[in-house]
Amino acid sequence: MDPTDAWYFKTYMDAGEYGFGLQAMPLVPLNDCPRNAYYMDGVFVASDGRPYVRSNMICVYESYGGDIGWRHSESPITGMEIREARPKVTLVARMAASVANYDYIVDWEFQTDGLIRVKVGLSGILMVKGASYTHVNQFQPKQDTFGTLLSENVLGVIHDHYMTFHLDLDVDGANNSFVKVHLSRQETDHNATPRRSYLKATRHVARTEKDARIKLKLYDPYEFHVINADKTTRVGNPVGYKVVPAGTAASLLDPADPPQLRGAFTNNQIWVTPRNEGEEWAGGLFVYQSRGEDTLAVWTERDRPIENKDIVLWYTLGFHHIPSQEDFPIMPTVSSSFDLKPVNFFERNPILGSPPNLEKDLPVCAAAASA
User: Fold this and answer.
1) Residue 311 and residue 315: Cα distance in Å, rounded?
2) Residue 368 domain-assigned (yes or no)
3) Which candidate in 5, 8, 14, 61 is catalytic?
4) In the prediction, which pLDDT does 10 show?
């Protein structure tokens, strides 16, 4: 985000220019992944086209961090001594890529209630620049340094990170629809109730691509469902999954700024397109010299039909990064995520029958020997 001559061109497309797969790194047992992890090899392609194998590229493990899957206790005044709880256990698949100075950790978490959580962690070495300053009192009034003084003569430049996920969901079949569920305040008849307002959910099926371009708004809330209108529950609700955003960021750059033109997939947090094998990467097939002519933003200008079609949902997870001294020289991991959550996909809570943990089920750590 530094527009000066020595820096303005540093707008890297880590996946398109370097490759998350090509830059994937072997995981370190016991540190990148826990003791119970199972490690999988990765097959890569050499420059001459021949395949080669690298070990420990993906780890898969069961995680139980003390979270609760569900619980309920009856109040003592009912006379019913009911106190039930179930642990939440998650299956995690993890990989890490080191793209030059930055490290990215990508987790796919599969929960027993059907929820899928996609989490991205950022770590590694900050992109820094040399400076003449050794103390912030040397800055001139109203001077824009484009970052934070992290150490003597070292500036950490303000920047963003965006990861766009291509989600071909196929909820209970290939043909799906994208539904925007708007939550709004409705006024009441003051003569009929002491309440002044209530909440109403209004569903709108997106017909075309432009109708499915979504910018998240805290005070104008929506849910975003992908449904199969041809498959319903016993009470008639269409089966579906919904995208549940967590902390994210939106680009603040001028839309005509060169890096924003080729990164125009960050113009929205959600897009929906008909599935097309030629549209696999949000930044286009060739991003090195891209001027933004082959991006998600350009494809969706065709405004193709997406209702009851084989569709792809694109979700962009973003980070604004104002560096601080704690980030230097190696940055503690910062993470964010989004969820894919069942919505009327099951007839009821799918983990009601899961067993509780008992004392005999859990390992007990004890000293192997004493001095």
Assistant:
1) 13
2) no
3) 14
4) 86
Q: What is the CATH number of the domain that holds 266?
A: 2.70.98.20
What domain count does the chain have? Answer: 2
What is the mean predicted confidence (pLDDT) over 249-255? 93
**Statement to judge: residues 186 and 305 lie in one domain:** yes
Whether 172 is catalytic is no
Predicted local distance difference test score (pLDDT) of residue 103: 95
Inside any domain, residue 157: no
pLDDT at 110 over 70: yes
- Please give the C-alpha separations between residue 31 and each of 19, 27, 36, 59, 121, in angstroms, as whole numbers: 24, 8, 12, 12, 15
pLDDT at 363 over 80: no
pLDDT higher than threshold 90 for residue 366 = no
- For residues 287 and 335, membership in a common domain is answered with no
DSSP H helical segments within the chain, as ranges? 258-262, 296-299
Domain that holds residue 60: 1-126+328-358
Q: Is 14 one of the annotated active-site residues of the chain?
A: yes
| Co-location of 57 and 190 in the same domain | no
Report field, pTM of the whole predicted structure over 0.90? yes
CA distance linking residue 347 with residue 340, whole number of Å: 18
Annotated catalytic residue: which of 102, 222, 241, 315?
102
